[in-house]
Amino acid sequence: MSDSQTALQTTSRIEDFDQWNTLKNTSRTFYLSIRQLPTKIGNAFCLAYLLLRVSDFFEDNEFMPPEEKIYWLNTWEEVLAGKPFPKDWQEKLKDFASQDPDAFAAFYADELLNLLALLPSGLQKKIVPIVQATTRGMARWVARGPVVLQEEDMDDYMFEVAGRVGYLSTEVFAWYSKAIQSRQDLLMPLAKETGLALQTVNILRGLRKDFERGWIYVPESYCDLVGINRGELFSSENEEKILKLVEILADKAERHLTSAIEYIKVIPPHEHKVRLACIWPLMFAARTISVSRNNLEVLKGTAKVSREEIQQIIKTTTLFGWSNRFIESYYSRLLHSTAKSL
Length: 342
Hints:
The chain is an all-alpha fold. The protein folds into 2 domains: about 15-145, Farnesyl Diphosphate Synthase (Orthogonal Bundle), CATH 1.10.600.10; about 145-340, Orthogonal Bundle (Farnesyl Diphosphate Synthase), CATH 1.10.600. It is built from 18 helices and no strands. Helix 4 packs antiparallel against helix 8, helix 8 (about 120-145) packs antiparallel against helix 9 (about 150-165) and helix 15 packs antiparallel against helix 16 (about 270-290). It is globular.
């Protein structure tokens, strides 16, 4: 960041702000993955991910009207470019910080930027443009509103809000690992699929919650295929049609996920911890797809992978995640298993 970056005047200081606790509160899944990375990579990726969560708050919160979200997203992009924080930044966010983990990250955005300034300048120049591009994309979609007509619209939205996470992680991994850097040209085309895979699964899991807040990310073209009106998505009379819709979403998630698995296989086996950071969220996603298929619990938002299964996935992949042959077979097993436990 620019040396002229003006930090907010707060009583808290960097030593009082714990980025890892903040990450844990915003996303337990990513906390598990990022926390076990080698220290330098983990610290940098944790920080980069939290910068994206600041953008997430402004795009996805339930407190602000669209025009206010757009204002704060644009303001955040300007701050990332080196402009001073507006004087009312923390005043605006203090009431939300105790209610929303992402708002907490946004409240302490000055601390995040101070920590960012401690990273190598070259790495900062890799991270900041990606966060800025995502922030601009989010503002564009807030302005556009929940208009998702075709699969191309859905893909555009998902790329803007999540697709660049794959680019971000690859840049951080490559900065600290020469072995990964040498394979970056192979990884980057697959990196986008990682973000799209996880976001498609998020949409699948969040159908009910998104519908209740007025957003439907399922394309109208999908609804037309099964003969359902988007406004009647959760009508009990349409359960059979909705299950067909869930199947279409699950198939789409699987297509992205299969490409994302190829991303893992490109990472050198000796970078075992980096591989695990990628393996865990993707394997959790694969299992989520399998438990969602033909399952009406998806409509209630309660089709989830159990904690026991998560622990089993972590244990098994920690032992064998260095093997590409294992990755392929275990992924297939998770994706197609119909058992309640593994």
